[in-house]
Amino acid sequence: MNRFPIPTGITQDDFAAMVAEHVERALARYDEAINKPTMVSVGKIAGSIASAVTLLSPKHQRAIDTIHADLPGLASKFVRALAAEAARRGEAGTATSSPAASLADVDGRALPSPRNQSDDLESMLIEDWAGRVAGSTYLEDNLHIARSTLHRWQRRGDVVALRKGGRKHVFPLAQFVDGRPVAGISGVLSLIGNPRLAWLWMTRPAAELDGRMPIDLLRQDQVDEVVEAARVFAPG
Q: Please, which pLDDT band fits residue 207 given cuts at 50, 70 and 90?
């Protein structure tokens, strides 16, 4: 059976590594704020997918060609499932579970007990689970959010602020739309309390929302539904 050819003289692993390197370089040029571990992870994902596609039969390659318009949505769902599986393994302290089984039904999985997660999150690197974060300087320079405004939002609980190191805080970028935190964050924070746990819940498929991600719904102004789901999830 003919396969999509990879460059002559290199193995599939070498090809994946080559793609990963190019993706890392592209990310570095595109966004200087992205952290190195994330660039490496994105590169590896891209390289692995590219290598896997070359092993598909011509029939399946042609099938992919017919769904170009759907690829962004499918890729987004895959990445969210991948991130949820990685977070779940980190919380369990193991990397031996079957990814195929876990990714297959990740949208239907509930988070473990909030009480069991809070302490674990305190010891995890922020970038490993929270996605892209930035400090006040980046937000002021790129999103035009004044430091005084950011601090006011933080005091009122309108924005998720994650402690990093001693007194420094960083802010997940996904919570901002048009230079403002999305509506509903204050409601979620007031119910869940711990900012780390609240952000983890908002950025994973939630059983209380039929597998949808709370932050996605907040970005679509579905505040009441998300706040009610947070009330169900929050510690009693």
A: confident
Provide the domain limits for residue 48.
Answer: 12-108
Number of structural domains, the chain? 2
Q: How many CA atoms lie within 13 A of 113 on its CB side?
A: 4
Question: Residue 217 pLDDT > 70, yes or no?
Answer: yes
Nearest in space to 43 (alpha carbons), one of 58, 30, 59, 61 = 30
- pTM for this predicted structure: 0.50
Alpha-helix residue ranges (DSSP H) falling in the chain: 12-30, 36-54, 58-65, 71-92, 99-104, 114-122, 126-129, 136-142, 147-156, 185-192, 195-202, 214-218, 223-233
Radius of gyration for the alpha carbons in the chain, expressed in angstroms and rounded? 20
Please indicate, yes or no, if residue 2 is contained in any of the structural domains.
Answer: no
The three-state secondary structure class of 201 is helix
Is 127 found in the same domain as 228? yes
